[in-house]
Structures are given as C-alpha cells and as structure tokens.
Amino acid sequence: MLWGGAEAAVTLGLVLLLFVVHQLWWTNRQARAAAERTVQALEEEWGDPGSPLEEGRESSAASSSSSPPRLVPSPSSPSSPFSAPSPPSGASSSGGGSSGGSGEASVRTGDPAPRWDQAYAILRIPEIGVRVPIAEGTGKGGVLDRGYVGHYPRTAQPGQAGNFALAGHRNTHGEPFRYIDRLRRGDELRVETRGAVYTYVVDKRLARTSARDGGVIRDVPRSEVREGYGYRAPGYYITLTTCTPEYTSKYRLVVWGTLRSMRPR
Predict the structure, then answer these.
(1) What are phi and psi of 5, to 5 degrees?
(2) In a domain, 201, yes or no
(3) What average pLDDT score do residues 195-218 get?
(4) Cis peptide, bond prior to residue 81, ω within 30 of zero
(5) Of the listed ranges 34-48, 107-121, 205-219, 233-247, the one predicted with least confidence
(6) Active site residues
(7) Alpha helices of 47-106 — where are they, by DSSP H?
(8) Is 16 part of a structural domain of the chain?
(9) Domain range spanning residue 195?
(10) Given this model, what pLDDT does residue 44 score?
C-alpha cells in the first residue's frame, strides 16, 4: 500500500512538472514563434520591414534581460485640468476615446478599422527587446495566448486623441510585457500601422493597482484606486497593462506614455 502511494505521488509530481514546463517554456516558444511570423507577415504586406539597426538594438536589449529592473520615477503631479495639450506634430485629431466604438484608426493615415482578433499593428519597445503584433480585443484564446498584445475595445486607436490602451501577458504565452516594469521615463514605444509610425514616450508608471481599476484605460487615464496616479487633462496617451506580481493575476501593473510624433509611411 505504501509502495502504491509512493508511485502515485511520483506520477503526480511528474505530471505537475510537465505542466510547469509546458506553461513556462513550451507556450512561450510557440507564442513567440507565431507572433514573430505575424510581424513578418505584416511587414511584408506593408512593404516596409524593420531595419537591421532597430532589430539589432532590440536583440541587444533582450540579451540584457537578467539585469536588475530599472524603474520609472514616481508619478509627478497631475497636469492642469484647465488646458489640454496641443496635438503632437502630425497627429490626427479625429475620433478617439471610449466614445468611438467603431475602432476606426487615424483618418489622416487611412488605416482601416481592425476586425476582432485581427493583428493590425506592431508594437516595438527597443529598450526591452519587444517586437510584437497588436490585435483588436483582449481575449485570451484569440489574442493574448497567441503572444500578441491586445487593444482594449472602445479605447482610442494609434495617433488619436484619447488613450490607446493595450494588454499583454507578463508570464507564459510569449510574455511580451514581462519586463515593462523596467521601462523608465523617456523610453520609446513605437506603434507601426499600415499608414504611419507613431512614437510614444514613457511618462508615468503605476506599480500596482486593482484588476478592476478601469480608470487607468479611460480617455484621460487616471487610477480610481490609487489617488494621484494618472492625468487630468485630455491628451494623446498610450497605456500598457499587465498582471503583477509575476506568475499571478491579482493586481495590475500600468505604464503610461504620451504621443511625441507621427510619421506617415
């Protein structure tokens, strides 16, 4: 009887070990490969592949991922609620925000409205070696578990006034947002679409908030849980969200940026 119990325990241990290997290694390998193929397909479709210099910089950043995290400075005082910033150079002023349910992208660049689960843009974060497709929606099966970054429906599209809000896995399934806690103020977040390249820069970070803190992805992103974190004035924002601490989904980590420039293709 004891022998039978020992065998069962060993078998269970092996099953659990295989499950962990599958989650931590195999899902990452599959999702990263699939995401990379999608990026290449988009670049070929647009006729504008990423430059070797950029890819080399990203590879170098990825190879240094074992270094200690670099944290964004504590959020500064919110901007004035009485004056909205002027649009960045080349940015579209059309659409945007949670009121635009059609998901129409920047009119000036002629980007088509993305379909549900469709990969329609590329996010590049050179400082942490990220090059990943952006798809419409944040469903696990159709978007996040494929290694993609998901666009929150009813938030702005790239280059629009409002908040272009994204979600991504921090662990497993490609984990594109694993190291966004290392981003610091001024780091670039480049969003490429068929019509344009939008350059955002990291501005603020919220290390931990509730998973139900919907304020962080609103038109004017501002935490409803952590007082003083976020913005007060309309603008052109990008929001990256992921789970925290690592290997849990209890809380959310948030990184905010603002649009600096837009370059048509």
Answers:
(1) -65, -40
(2) yes
(3) 97
(4) no
(5) 107-121
(6) 169, 243, 252
(7) 52-63
(8) no
(9) 29-264
(10) 96
The answer to whether 248 touches 186, Cβ cutoff 8 Å, is no
Question: Is pTM beyond 0.90 here?
Answer: no
DSSP state of 107: G
Q: Which of 124, 128, 122, 123 is nearest to 72 (CA)?
A: 128
Q: Residue 170 in contact with residue 182, Cβ under 8 Å?
A: no
Helices (H) and strands (E) in the chain, counts: 3, 8
The mean per-residue pLDDT over the stretch 22-44 comes to 86
- pLDDT at residue number 7: 59
Residue 159 is part of a domain; what is its CATH number?
A: 2.40.260.10
- Contact at 8 Å (CB) between 230 and 221? yes
The CA distance from 262 to 197, in Å, is 6
Query: Which tops the pLDDT comparison, 9 or 40?
Result: 40
Which of 254, 244, 199 lies closest to 222, judged by CA?
A: 254
Count the domains in the chain: 1
